Amino acid sequence: xxxxxxxxxxxxxxxxxxxxxxxxxxxxxxxxxxxxxxxxxxxxxxxxxxxxxxxxxxxxxxxxxxxxxxxxxxxxxxxxxxxxxxxxxxxxxxxxxxxxxxxxxxxxxxxxxxxxxxxxxxxxxxxxxxxxxxxxxxxxxxxxxxxxxxxxxxxxxxxxxxxxxxxxxxxxxxxxxxxxxxxxxxxxxxxxxxxxxxxxxxxxxxxxxxxxxxxxxxxxxxxxxxxxxxxxxxxxxxxxxxxxxxxxxxxxxxxxxxxxxxxxxxxxxxxxxxxxxxxxxxxxxxxxxxxxxxxxxxxxxxxxxxxxxxxxxxxxxxxxxxxxxxxxxxxxxxxxxxxxxxxxxxxxxxxxxxxxxxxxxxxxxxxxxxxxx
Length: 373
Fold this sequence. Notes:
- There is one protein chain.
- 38% of the residues lie in helices and 16% in strands.
- The chain contains 12 helices and 12 strands.
- By secondary structure, the protein is α/β, with parallel strands linked by helices.
- The chain has helices spanning 28-38, 44-65, 82-85, 124-136, 149-154, 165-185, 197-202, 204-212, 217-231, 264-270, 316-326, 354-371, and strands spanning 69-70, 89-94, 101-102, 105-106, 111-119, 140-146, 155-157, 190-195, 240-245, 275-279, 300-306, 335-339.
- The radius of gyration is 20 Å and the shape is globular.
- A 7-stranded parallel sheet has the order 1-6-8-9-10-11-12.
- It has one domain (8-371): TIM Barrel (Alpha-Beta Barrel), CATH 3.20.20.
């Protein structure tokens, strides 16, 4: 790596050289309190107080480790996506007959359905963000929400609400425009859209399933690109919006496999996103060749080379070599490092300890410091 291409770790604008996806393992105190609340043993206010205290604790831990962006670990959520989506106007949660199928495992049963016209008015996660913002101090408070495409991918759209798909996508984009502005007004300058649809569109198996159902995966890619671009079209200039491309993360298992080649051109040249968090912790994500489609000098690529699915620490030299390989396709100044996903996309969490989680994030910071001195 040539010295003149290297910049400081302490970049002022997110994403940062050492960054994180967002979710963290729920502490035992949080797990107990949520169980007590579900059983009616404590009030909603008592649960929120415990959540506030635990979030304050993990925010301080993130600062101590050396991260520049802090999250609330999604401690108030059961799911990375459903909790947000079912609180949009016109969307309801419901209990399904079975859960989502992951590799050798299923989630608990739950789903969402669109029962009325979509809108964003009063959403409980605005107050969640305000609390995180209030304790972030000089650090950047990062908010994570599901990408708008997830409502279409995971939601059941009732015909009494939307008989016309074009109207649905139009209203969904406008709903997200309002959401983005509302989080901005609450102080948010770093917003991440989490998205598993692109991971599915990378998968040969999932693409074949779509074709069997009469869905053209390439057309769906274009539809989602237009939806997301319209959703972020009026974002304020000083707000960074990133996207995490996920292949599924439940109890250390996965949902889909496949390299980025089928969607790379649409992602990197078509989506008006400031940065992409890309999973690269296993062979299931393929190689770095699809990064050749990154033709924007302002686009950041956050390499998810550190796995959040297992506690063993990667060899730092191996990670540095892989970053060097990626820099053959994207300038080193446009690269950052993170874990490949969060540690608890659902409240059950991945199969590692909290100490191993912190060691992983510390590993990200230390390796990034070595590279971007």
